[in-house]
Amino acid sequence: MQAVMQHIGPQKEQIAFILKWVASFIQILGYTATAMQATPLNMYLFLLGITGWLVVGLLWNDKAIILIHVVALSAMVFGLVSA
After folding, report:
1. What proportions of the chain, in percent to the nearest 5, are helix, strand and coil?
2. For 34, which of 47, 67, 76, 83 is 20 to 30 Å away at the CA?
């Protein structure tokens, strides 16, 4: 993983900037789908948004963002598998 991050180099901040906004928009769509009772679409949208933010956390090496999104992703996957 470290080799991938080093290869990204100077483009890392631009990638993180775009990804955080795309992931945020996808999560907003997930909240909207939840309000409209559109399941399981809402779960898949949340999975995409959470994964996007996890990648942002990895790009920034931000352990708090990584932790919360690993926990959230684990809970979402567990919920989907056990349903």
Report:
1. 90, 0, 10
2. 67
Q: Which two tokens stand for residue 83?
A: 């349903």
Which of 37, 67, 41, 36 shows the shortest CA–CA distance to 54?
67
Does residue 22 lie within any of the structural domains?
A: yes
pLDDT digit string, tens, across residues 47-60:
999 999 999 999 99
In a domain, 60, yes or no: yes
In angstroms, the CA 49 to CA 23 distance is 4
Residues sharing a CB contact under 8 Å with residue 77, sequence separation 6 or more, in sequence order: 47
Residue 62 lies in a domain: yes
The pTM score is 0.85
